[in-house]
Automatic annotation (TrEMBL):
Residues 12-93 form the GST N-terminal domain. This is Glutaredoxin family protein. It comes from candidate division WOR-3 bacterium. InterPro entries: Glutaredoxin, Glutathione_S-Trfase_N, Thioredoxin-like_sf.
Amino acid sequence: MEKKHSPGVKKGEVLLYALSTCIWCQKTKKLLKDMGIDFYYIDVDLLEGEDRKKAEEEIRRFNPRGSFPTLVINNKQCIVGYQEDEIRKALIG
């Protein structure tokens, strides 16, 4: 499964599960880029077969509803939806 990378300042392992057509997912990507955060993202709707199934299973570990965007920080903290204040607090403090 291919993860796309957006370089920036390392704030731990930051992974965004998104849909390529979702406006809230696009806003979350833009926010992370504007903040200068190093992160990876997966556009789940562009995956096929086993890759897509695996991504959906990973999402449900953190977000049982499987909704988007799902932002996972250090495999511990999960922020669901476009929650600008919560994202800023988690990554900047």
